[in-house]
C-alpha cells in the first residue's frame, strides 16, 4: 500500500471517528433508502471486522470468507446491530476501526499482495475498498461531510473505478465531484448532464 493511500485511510477513519461521537442520532435516516444512520454504522463496523479477518488469514497464507454465512448473514447482522443504542453501537465502531488499523499496520510491503477471498483480490484491494466505503458512507450519514468534501485524489480514483458502470461511452458534463457522486449512485451536489436532448444512461451495477 502506498504512503498516500495509508494517509488517506487514516484521515478517513479519523473523520468517521470524529463524527460518530456523543449526540450522534443512530435512529435518524441516512441517505440510503431503508437505512438509518445506525445501519450505516453497523455496516462499517462489520466490514472493518471482516477486513481485519481477511488480513489475519492472509498473513498466515490462508483465506476465509468475508462473512460467515455469506450475504444473508451479513444483511441480518447489519439489521440486528443497527437498532443497538448509540452507547453500544458507536464504541463498537471505534473498536473495529482501531483493530483494523492495528492489523494493517503489521503489514510489510509484500503482504499487500497476499491473496484474499474478497473479490478474489489482494490485501491491497481490501484497503482500496475500505477507502471507498468510508468516504462514501460517511457522506451517507447526512452529517457535515458531503461529496463536495471528498479529496481530489479520491474523486479521481472513484471516477476511474466506476467507469464500468457506464453502459456505453458517453460525454458527461459536470464538476468532477458531481460526476463521481452520480457514478456512485448518490445525489450529485451540482447537475450532471450529457449531450443535449439525451438522457443520462442507466448505470450498470457496481463493479
TrEMBL record:
Keywords for this protein: Isomerase, Pyruvate
Residues covered by the Mycothiol-dependent maleylpyruvate isomerase metal-binding domain: 13-142
GO terms assigned for molecular function: maleylpyruvate isomerase activity; metal ion binding
Biased composition (Pro residues): 198-207
Entries under Pfam families matching the protein: MDMPI_N
Keyword Isomerase: yes
InterPro entries, A to Z: DinB/YfiT-like, Maleyloyr_isom, MDMPI_metal-binding
SUPFAM superfamilies associated with the record: DinB/YfiT-like putative metalloenzymes (SSF109854)
Enzyme Commission number(s) from the entry: 5.2.1.4
Annotated region described as Disordered, given as residue ranges: 188-207
Keyword Isomerase attached: yes
Protein name: Maleylpyruvate isomerase
Source species: Crossiella cryophila
Native organism taxonomy: Bacteria, Bacillati, Actinomycetota, Actinomycetes, Pseudonocardiales
